[in-house]
Amino acid sequence: MIDFTDAANAIVAAGGRLDRLGLAPATAGNYSMRLDDGTMAITVSGAHKGRLTPGQVMRASLEGASLDGKKPSAETLLHCLVYEVDGGAGAVLHSHSVAGTVLSRALADRSAIELEGYELLKIFPGVVDHDVRIAMPLVDNSQDMPALAAQLRPILQAATPPLPAFYIRGHGLYAWGPTMDAAENLVEACEFLLNCAWEELKLNGGGR
Ligand SMILES: CSC[C@@H](O)[C@@H](O)C(=O)COP(=O)(O)O
Ligand SMILES: [Zn+2]
Protein backbone atom coordinates (compact mmCIF):
# COMPACT_ATOMS: atom_id res chain seq x y z
CA MET A 1 0.00 0.00 0.00
CA ILE A 2 1.13 3.49 -0.77
CA ASP A 3 0.20 7.15 -0.12
CA PHE A 4 -0.77 9.70 -2.75
CA THR A 5 2.61 11.44 -3.09
CA ASP A 6 4.52 8.18 -3.56
CA ALA A 7 1.88 6.96 -6.02
CA ALA A 8 2.02 10.17 -8.06
CA ASN A 9 5.80 9.88 -8.30
CA ALA A 10 5.59 6.21 -9.31
CA ILE A 11 2.96 7.04 -11.97
CA VAL A 12 5.10 9.86 -13.40
CA ALA A 13 8.07 7.46 -13.59
CA ALA A 14 5.93 4.78 -15.26
CA GLY A 15 4.86 7.31 -17.89
CA GLY A 16 8.47 8.07 -18.71
CA ARG A 17 9.31 4.39 -18.99
CA LEU A 18 6.34 3.43 -21.17
CA ASP A 19 6.85 6.48 -23.38
CA ARG A 20 10.52 5.54 -23.92
CA LEU A 21 9.31 2.08 -24.95
CA GLY A 22 6.93 3.57 -27.53
CA LEU A 23 3.87 2.47 -25.57
CA ALA A 24 2.37 5.91 -24.93
CA PRO A 25 2.06 7.87 -28.20
CA ALA A 26 0.58 11.38 -28.03
CA THR A 27 -1.79 11.46 -25.03
CA ALA A 28 -2.55 7.73 -25.13
CA GLY A 29 -2.54 5.55 -22.03
CA ASN A 30 -3.62 6.01 -18.44
CA TYR A 31 -2.21 4.78 -15.14
CA SER A 32 -3.42 4.36 -11.58
CA MET A 33 -2.50 3.04 -8.16
CA ARG A 34 -4.70 1.90 -5.30
CA LEU A 35 -4.04 4.00 -2.20
CA ASP A 36 -4.00 2.85 1.40
CA ASP A 37 -7.02 5.06 2.27
CA GLY A 38 -9.34 3.19 -0.11
CA THR A 39 -9.11 5.70 -2.97
CA MET A 40 -6.89 5.72 -6.05
CA ALA A 41 -4.34 7.96 -7.72
CA ILE A 42 -4.96 8.20 -11.48
CA THR A 43 -3.75 10.25 -14.41
CA VAL A 44 -5.87 13.23 -15.46
CA SER A 45 -7.46 13.03 -18.90
CA GLY A 46 -5.53 14.26 -21.91
CA ALA A 47 -2.00 14.54 -20.53
CA HIS A 48 1.07 13.33 -22.44
CA LYS A 49 2.19 10.38 -20.36
CA GLY A 50 5.86 10.79 -21.19
CA ARG A 51 5.82 14.35 -19.87
CA LEU A 52 3.62 13.85 -16.81
CA THR A 53 4.03 16.00 -13.73
CA PRO A 54 2.81 14.99 -10.25
CA GLY A 55 0.10 17.66 -10.67
CA GLN A 56 -1.33 15.63 -13.55
CA VAL A 57 -2.00 12.76 -11.17
CA MET A 58 -5.24 13.16 -9.23
CA ARG A 59 -7.25 11.41 -6.56
CA ALA A 60 -10.46 9.54 -7.42
CA SER A 61 -12.78 7.20 -5.56
CA LEU A 62 -12.75 3.51 -6.43
CA GLU A 63 -16.13 4.19 -8.06
CA GLY A 64 -14.47 6.71 -10.39
CA ALA A 65 -15.56 10.05 -8.89
CA SER A 66 -13.08 12.92 -8.85
CA LEU A 67 -12.08 13.78 -5.30
CA ASP A 68 -10.09 16.92 -6.07
CA GLY A 69 -11.98 18.68 -8.88
CA LYS A 70 -9.64 17.49 -11.63
CA LYS A 71 -10.90 15.52 -14.64
CA PRO A 72 -9.88 11.87 -14.44
CA SER A 73 -8.92 9.66 -17.37
CA ALA A 74 -11.75 8.97 -19.80
CA GLU A 75 -11.14 5.27 -19.02
CA THR A 76 -11.26 5.57 -15.23
CA LEU A 77 -14.11 3.02 -14.98
CA LEU A 78 -11.83 0.32 -16.39
CA HIS A 79 -9.35 0.99 -13.58
CA CYS A 80 -12.26 0.83 -11.10
CA LEU A 81 -13.27 -2.51 -12.62
CA VAL A 82 -9.80 -4.00 -12.13
CA TYR A 83 -9.64 -2.90 -8.48
CA GLU A 84 -13.15 -4.32 -7.98
CA VAL A 85 -12.49 -7.78 -9.45
CA ASP A 86 -8.89 -8.20 -8.23
CA GLY A 87 -8.43 -7.35 -4.58
CA GLY A 88 -4.67 -7.82 -5.02
CA ALA A 89 -4.34 -5.21 -7.77
CA GLY A 90 -2.21 -2.29 -6.62
CA ALA A 91 -1.34 -0.64 -9.95
CA VAL A 92 -3.07 -0.61 -13.35
CA LEU A 93 -1.42 0.45 -16.61
CA HIS A 94 -2.92 1.00 -20.06
CA SER A 95 -0.64 1.07 -23.13
CA HIS A 96 -1.08 1.62 -26.86
CA SER A 97 1.23 -0.12 -29.38
CA VAL A 98 1.24 -0.62 -33.13
CA ALA A 99 1.63 -4.40 -32.86
CA GLY A 100 -1.19 -4.87 -30.36
CA THR A 101 -3.48 -2.55 -32.30
CA VAL A 102 -3.06 -4.25 -35.66
CA LEU A 103 -2.98 -7.79 -34.22
CA SER A 104 -6.24 -7.25 -32.38
CA ARG A 105 -7.86 -5.85 -35.54
CA ALA A 106 -6.55 -8.78 -37.61
CA LEU A 107 -8.17 -11.15 -35.12
CA ALA A 108 -11.60 -9.89 -36.10
CA ASP A 109 -14.48 -11.66 -34.29
CA ARG A 110 -12.10 -13.41 -31.86
CA SER A 111 -12.78 -13.02 -28.15
CA ALA A 112 -9.22 -13.78 -27.05
CA ILE A 113 -5.62 -13.38 -28.19
CA GLU A 114 -4.00 -16.82 -27.91
CA LEU A 115 -0.37 -16.72 -26.79
CA GLU A 116 1.42 -20.07 -26.80
CA GLY A 117 4.93 -21.42 -26.28
CA TYR A 118 6.74 -18.20 -25.47
CA GLU A 119 9.29 -18.02 -22.66
CA LEU A 120 7.93 -14.64 -21.56
CA LEU A 121 4.57 -16.23 -20.71
CA LYS A 122 6.26 -17.05 -17.40
CA ILE A 123 5.61 -13.40 -16.44
CA PHE A 124 2.01 -14.40 -15.69
CA PRO A 125 1.24 -15.46 -12.11
CA GLY A 126 1.42 -19.23 -11.69
CA VAL A 127 3.02 -19.92 -15.09
CA VAL A 128 6.28 -21.82 -14.64
CA ASP A 129 6.82 -23.33 -18.11
CA HIS A 130 6.86 -21.85 -21.60
CA ASP A 131 4.78 -24.77 -22.88
CA VAL A 132 1.43 -23.22 -22.05
CA ARG A 133 -1.40 -21.43 -23.85
CA ILE A 134 -2.74 -18.20 -22.42
CA ALA A 135 -5.95 -16.65 -23.74
CA MET A 136 -5.89 -12.89 -23.19
CA PRO A 137 -9.48 -11.57 -23.24
CA LEU A 138 -10.20 -9.40 -26.30
CA VAL A 139 -13.25 -7.13 -26.52
CA ASP A 140 -14.43 -4.62 -29.10
CA ASN A 141 -13.59 -0.99 -28.55
CA SER A 142 -16.25 1.38 -27.25
CA GLN A 143 -16.39 4.92 -25.94
CA ASP A 144 -19.17 3.82 -23.57
CA MET A 145 -17.10 3.01 -20.47
CA PRO A 146 -19.97 1.80 -18.26
CA ALA A 147 -20.96 -0.64 -21.04
CA LEU A 148 -17.36 -1.74 -21.62
CA ALA A 149 -16.82 -2.32 -17.91
CA ALA A 150 -20.09 -4.27 -17.70
CA GLN A 151 -19.00 -6.45 -20.62
CA LEU A 152 -15.56 -7.08 -19.14
CA ARG A 153 -16.66 -7.79 -15.55
CA PRO A 154 -17.92 -11.38 -16.07
CA ILE A 155 -15.01 -12.12 -18.40
CA LEU A 156 -12.45 -11.14 -15.77
CA GLN A 157 -14.37 -12.85 -12.99
CA ALA A 158 -14.54 -16.11 -14.98
CA ALA A 159 -10.85 -16.26 -15.87
CA THR A 160 -9.28 -19.33 -14.24
CA PRO A 161 -6.57 -18.92 -13.23
CA PRO A 162 -7.06 -15.14 -13.01
CA LEU A 163 -5.22 -13.29 -15.78
CA PRO A 164 -4.09 -9.74 -15.00
CA ALA A 165 -4.50 -8.38 -18.54
CA PHE A 166 -7.08 -7.76 -21.27
CA TYR A 167 -7.06 -6.14 -24.70
CA ILE A 168 -9.50 -3.71 -26.31
CA ARG A 169 -9.58 -4.27 -30.07
CA GLY A 170 -7.88 -1.60 -32.14
CA HIS A 171 -7.22 0.35 -28.95
CA GLY A 172 -4.84 -0.97 -26.33
CA LEU A 173 -3.75 -3.19 -23.47
CA TYR A 174 -4.71 -3.12 -19.79
CA ALA A 175 -2.40 -4.96 -17.39
CA TRP A 176 -2.01 -4.81 -13.64
CA GLY A 177 -0.12 -6.14 -10.66
CA PRO A 178 0.25 -5.83 -6.92
CA THR A 179 2.92 -3.11 -7.30
CA MET A 180 3.86 -0.60 -9.97
CA ASP A 181 7.04 -2.58 -10.71
CA ALA A 182 4.98 -5.74 -11.30
CA ALA A 183 2.48 -3.87 -13.49
CA GLU A 184 5.28 -2.32 -15.56
CA ASN A 185 6.88 -5.71 -16.09
CA LEU A 186 3.54 -7.18 -17.14
CA VAL A 187 2.86 -4.42 -19.65
CA GLU A 188 6.34 -4.75 -21.11
CA ALA A 189 6.06 -8.55 -21.35
CA CYS A 190 2.52 -8.47 -22.79
CA GLU A 191 3.50 -5.95 -25.44
CA PHE A 192 6.54 -8.09 -26.33
CA LEU A 193 4.26 -11.15 -26.63
CA LEU A 194 1.72 -9.25 -28.77
CA ASN A 195 4.59 -8.17 -31.01
CA CYS A 196 5.72 -11.80 -31.39
CA ALA A 197 2.18 -12.97 -32.13
CA TRP A 198 1.72 -10.25 -34.76
CA GLU A 199 5.04 -11.04 -36.46
CA GLU A 200 4.17 -14.76 -36.54
CA LEU A 201 0.71 -14.08 -37.94
CA LYS A 202 2.29 -12.01 -40.72
CA LEU A 203 4.83 -14.76 -41.46
CA ASN A 204 1.96 -17.23 -41.76
CA GLY A 205 0.03 -14.92 -44.06
CA GLY A 206 -2.78 -14.58 -41.53
CA GLY A 207 -5.09 -11.70 -40.92
CA ARG A 208 -8.62 -10.67 -41.67
C1 LIG B 1 -6.21 10.39 -28.08
S1 LIG B 1 -5.19 9.26 -27.24
C2 LIG B 1 -6.19 7.89 -26.75
C3 LIG B 1 -7.30 8.21 -25.75
O1 LIG B 1 -8.49 8.43 -26.48
C4 LIG B 1 -7.50 7.09 -24.77
O2 LIG B 1 -7.65 5.85 -25.40
C5 LIG B 1 -6.38 7.01 -23.80
O3 LIG B 1 -5.73 6.02 -23.67
C6 LIG B 1 -6.08 8.21 -22.99
O4 LIG B 1 -7.23 8.84 -22.48
P1 LIG B 1 -7.12 9.71 -21.13
O5 LIG B 1 -8.48 10.33 -21.00
O6 LIG B 1 -6.02 10.71 -21.35
O7 LIG B 1 -6.76 8.76 -20.05
ZN1 LIG C 1 -6.53 4.21 -24.52
Automatic annotation (TrEMBL):
Molecular function GO terms recorded: aldehyde-lyase activity; methylthioribulose 1-phosphate dehydratase activity; zinc ion binding
Annotated binding of Zn(2+), by residue: 94, 96
Class of enzymatic activity (EC top level): lyase
Membrane-spanning intervals of the chain: none
Keyword Zinc listed: yes
Sequence ranges assigned to domain Class II aldolase/adducin N-terminal in this UniProt record: 9-198
InterPro entries given in the database record: Aldolase_class_II_sugar_metab, Aldolase_II/adducin_N, Aldolase_II/adducin_N_sf, MethylthioRu-1-P_deHdtase_MtnB
SUPFAM superfamilies with a match to the protein in the record: AraD/HMP-PK domain-like
Record-linked Pfam families: Aldolase_II
Pathway: Amino-acid biosynthesis; L-methionine biosynthesis via salvage pathway; L-methionine from S-methyl-5-thio-alpha-D-ribose 1-phosphate: step 2/6
Cellular component terms (Gene Ontology): cytosol
Superkingdom of origin organism: Bacteria
EC number from the UniProt entry: 4.2.1.109
Entry function: Catalyzes the dehydration of methylthioribulose-1-phosphate (MTRu-1-P) into 2,3-diketo-5-methylthiopentyl-1-phosphate (DK-MTP-1-P).
Name of the protein: Methylthioribulose-1-phosphate dehydratase
